[in-house]
Structure of Rrf2 family protein:
Amino acid sequence: MKYSKATNYALHTMLHLAMSNTTKPVGVQTLAEQQQVSPTYLSKILTKLVKEGMVTSVSGANGGYSLVHGWESISFLDIIYAIEGKSSLFECHFNHGPECLIQKVMLRAEEKMEEELRNQTIADLVNKETTF
Amino acid sequence: MKYSKATNYALHTMLHLAMSNTTKPVGVQTLAEQQQVSPTYLSKILTKLVKEGMVTSVSGANGGYSLVHGWESISFLDIIYAIEGKSSLFECHFNHGPECLIQKVMLRAEEKMEEELRNQTIADLVNKETTF
DNA sequence: GGTAATTTACTCGGATATCCGTTGTCCGAGTATAGACGG
DNA sequence: CCGTCTATACTCGGACAACGGATATCCGAGTAAATTACC
């Protein structure tokens, strides 16, 4: 079990957008170069972020992506959910009663992690990070 | 990102072994029937648990698997590590300085989950669980 | 009846097949800006 | 000048390919108990 590279790309892209304090949108070319990933693939990832309402895209010349108003409250968990999906990490498909104790334990542990990720925003990092 | 079915099988098998309060080893056939999984596949999973020293195997007739002495202290995390591996869930492979702030956040969150899984043992469930 | 040979019931491990999510690539379509061109 | 026309620079989204790990299956080898055969 691993977090996908896409999640890593998404987090880094969000951080990059947050730190480029410009109102103009940033082209996917620029963003892709930073992370050495193909622009087309990165655009697919960004589309997910757009659909979740974290990022806006502008078509045409001088177009690109930029953070939505109120981006300061976007948490790590929001971004991870957008890429990985919102479903639980552990699912027991056996039919041994309505409640699987093992599943309960796993979900409680997962909740602990999510709680941490929910309380951490991209904005928290902007102050600390100097170079991208 | 999902926990593998193998992890689910491993956890349920451990719980089953813990609850079958017999000194005799339990055959993989029996264990596989409980979870409706093929015996050969389950044996592969059990081999991992044997290698990590949580389970012992006895060859030959009347052979099978049984928990090691001191199994009461085996945690969820031990079992998960045995199946999924011990490596971190999130790894940033970019070369932007020695420490990636994003990675730091992810690792801290992951630690929270592992802490919970480390403090939960199979033995904890044996008392609560009545039927398998 | 005791010993040896054989059958039976298991685990172990390697090789292999299948499936599916991840990670990309390619391309056509749509869109907005910039520049060229004609009046 | 001013409006239009075209080239250019982008994003968007669907189709598709490559890859690797998860999920099995098959089979031969080893092992220990149970059973049988033999003297």
